[in-house]
Amino acid sequence: MPLVPPLDPNHDPETKKLAEFFNETLGFCPNSILTMQHRPAISKAFINLNKAVMANEGRVTSALKRMIAWVSSNATGCRYCQAHAIRAAERYGAEQEQLDNIWDYRTHPSFSEAERAALDFSLQASQVPNGVDAEIKERLYQYWNEGEIVEMLGVISLFGYLNRWNDSQGTDIEDGAVESANQYLGKHGWEKGKHDGGRY
């Protein structure tokens, strides 16, 4: 069982309406949102932040944003968010070769140098202590403008919140997310871990 159980999707009508966003991104409302609605101000603010961060304002595609989220979640070890990010990347049209080789983004030919710079930024920004340095900055500016870098950092920061939330919570992982994680990440050892419903 998770630290705090999720509430019924109908608990807060405003959260339920906002959470329709996740039917597009994931195909279901995440248990993390259903738990946040113990304090509806948090669930509503989070969904609105999520929508703002994931909006397409430039060349940072929806698929790349979800791969940035995956790298961030992989760096922090949150298996719940790893599964959600790879599922959303799939649903937003990431290339099959990229999904199959996300672990090898630094060397696999399906990733461009611009994507590698973005994903390395995510990796370094998600570490403690933070690893973003002058070299990362220089590489980012070779390919991306300031607004696009802000979008990327928005994704990384959003998933920093989600990684802490879901790993501390031990959020039960949904079947759809497990299916995507097993397909793309299972060969590298992904498993539910604490998100299988039996931690507490």
Describe this structure in words.
This protein is mostly helical and 200 residues long. The chain has helices at 13-18, 20-25, 31-36, 40-54, 62-76, 79-91, 96-100, 113-125, 134-143, 146-169, 175-184. The chain is globular and about 45 Å long. The model has no long low-confidence stretch (mean pLDDT 95).
The end-to-end distance, rounded to whole angstroms, is 5 Å
Percent helix range: 55-70%
- Series of secondary-structure elements, N-terminal to C-terminal: HHHHHHHHHHH
Number of H/I helices: 11
Largest sheet: none
| Rounded mean pLDDT score | 95
- Tell me which CATH architecture of the domain at 60-188 applies here: Up-down Bundle
Low-confidence stretches: none
CATH topology of the domain at 60-188: AhpD-like
Q: Got a strand count?
A: 0
Structural class: mainly alpha
CATH superfamily of the domain at 60-188: AhpD-like
The geometry reads as globular
CATH class of the domain at 60-188: Mainly Alpha
Strand coverage percent? under 5%
- What is the rounded Rg? 16 Å
Topology summary:
Blueprint: H1 13-18, H2 20-25, H3 31-36, H4 40-54, H5 62-76, H6 79-91, H7 96-100, H8 113-125, H9 134-143, H10 146-169, H11 175-184
What keywords describe this structure?
200 residues, mainly alpha, globular, AhpD-like, CMD-like
Provide a short characterization of the protein structure.
Residues 40-120 form the Carboxymuconolactone decarboxylase-like domain. With 200 residues, the protein is mainly alpha-helical. It contains eleven helices and no strands.
